[in-house]
Amino acid sequence: MRYLILEDGSIYAGEGFGSDRETSGEVVFTTGMTGYQEAITDQSYADQILVFTNPLIGNYGITLADYESLEPRIKGVICHQVARRPDSWRMQTTLPKFLKQLNIPGIQGIDTRELVRKLRVHGTLRGKIANSKNDAEKIAKILQTKKITQGVISRVSTKSPYPVPGSKRNIVVIDFGIKHSILRELAERDCNCIVLPYTATTEEVLELHPDGVLLSNGPGDPEEMKDAVKMVQEVEKYVPLFGICMGHQVFALANGAKTYKMKFGHRGFNHPVREIATGNIGFTSQNHGYAVDGDSIDKDNLMITHVEVNDGTVEGLRHKKYPAFSVQFHPDATPGPHDEDSLFDDFMSMIDQRKEEERHA
């Protein structure tokens, strides 16, 4: 048996799979029905124990093509059932073997409906995956005293710049914990990319003479990104900019807005988002525990372009003076609906328009 012990003293028993090690982290849930590999390898889940609401995962195995990062920092996986006989022509290994190789523990057999209901009512809780429940009361007290991990982006961002070659627009990508699918979307548009660490300065960005700058997704508290905020405040004046997820929050902070920690966040591939200008609703892939405070937005600098249909969360922003915009959701959407992947084309058009203006200046 293996146990999930929560800070409120709750204990959930199940069967272990993957790694045998014990671990602790923030317990969160995703509503996605597919895409377990992409979720597990998404660096935005760093230091978190992920609960899958879909009753069955692992049914199509694991394939190299679906990695979102090669060294995921997720702390653990919770599900109701792992498929006993996965099958797919793309499969290269099974989910339990994959987790064991990455030293990530998992538990199956838990009533995930009851667990997710608790998280929705009480909010995100810290938990520990343990091999014994003997010290459960002591563990719960320790979990109550632990703070949310700081500096997590420093562990998931690249340590040194690297290229993703292309022949058209030159894009500098700031890596807060980037999903490979974002780079794939840029590669499909034949962009020549240079990926920089989250610590990149204004000078380091501009000396590469980018046509555009993309701020990636990533884990943790956006208000820790003070140096990145300062960089964006300068770079947006000179270069078209596009922020995604954490990049959206950093863009908002750079323009005077504030962010806050959500009760249980948005994680999954079925979140409806309304574009304010057209009224169109697109279903989106999301993974964030923080959001932009709509009441804090400086209306002289920013306009809200998208909102979440269910709770009114700010999902998109555009600068009123500079060619810069951002979205809280993932237009790259792997997995998930591709309703909003045209935003990458909008970014390309913004870059081309800026270059045309400079050519005639």
**How many beta-strand runs?**
19
CATH architecture name of the largest domain: 3-Layer(aba) Sandwich
Q: pLDDT below 50 for ≥5 consecutive residues: which ranges? A: none
Structural class by helix and strand composition: alpha/beta
Tell me the fraction of residues in β-strands, as a range: 25-35%
Q: In angstroms, what separates the terminal alpha carbons? A: 70 Å
**Mind telling me the C-alpha Rg?**
21 Å
| CATH fold label of the largest domain | Rossmann fold
Largest sheet: 10 strands, mixed
Pfam families: CPSase_sm_chain (PF00988), GATase (PF00117)
Family: Belongs to the CarA family.
EC number: 6.3.5.5
Pathway: Amino-acid biosynthesis; L-arginine biosynthesis; carbamoyl phosphate from bicarbonate: step 1/1; Pyrimidine metabolism; UMP biosynthesis via de novo pathway; (S)-dihydroorotate from bicarbonate: step 1/3
Descriptive report:
It catalyses: hydrogencarbonate + L-glutamine + 2 ATP + H2O = carbamoyl phosphate + L-glutamate + 2 ADP + phosphate + 2 H(+); L-glutamine + H2O = L-glutamate + NH4(+). L-glutamine binds at residues 44, 218, 220, 246, 249, 287, 289-290. Belongs to the CarA family. With 361 residues, the chain is an alpha/beta fold. It has two domains: 2-149, Glucose Oxidase, domain 1 (3-Layer(bba) Sandwich); 153-360, Rossmann fold. The protein is built from ten helices and 19 strands. The protein has a ten-stranded mixed β-sheet with strand order 10-12-11-13-14-19-18-17-15-16, with helices on both faces. The model has no long low-confidence stretch (mean pLDDT 95).
